[in-house]
Amino acid sequence: MSYVTSLEEVAWGIALVAITMAIHGCGMLATLFACHAVRQETNEPVSFFRSGAMLILEDFQNTQLSLIHKRRADRHSRKQHG
Question: pLDDT-derived band of residue 40, with 50, 70 and 90 as boundaries?
Fold first, then answer.
């Protein structure tokens, strides 16, 4: 038995990749604005500790966005395959 991917499945795949990229782009912009806001609080140079904390915060935000999107994609997949 062979399986042929339908055009609908290809379209859904393309749509989900596009949505993933849009969510990632929005998340990166939000992270950029948050880091910029933290740096604008003081006119002093940013310390090593504070830079490290911002890096960890950025990574945490991106991880959350990825997990949220994966959960939504899993829900959609379950609905499609019953």
Answer: confident
- Band (pLDDT 50/70/90 cuts) for residue 68 is confident
Long-range contacts of 64-67 (CB under 8 A, 24+ apart): 65/23, 65/24, 65/27, 66/24
The DSSP letter of residue 4 is -
Decide: 23 and 65 in contact? Cβ < 8 Å.
yes
pLDDT of residue 82: 59
Taking alpha carbons only, the member of 15, 3, 10 closest to residue 72 is 15
Which pTM value belongs to this model? 0.51
Element (H, E) at 51: helix 48-81
Are residues 70 and 19 in contact, defined by beta-carbon separation less than 8 angstroms?
no
DSSP string, 17-30: HHHHHHHHHHHHHH
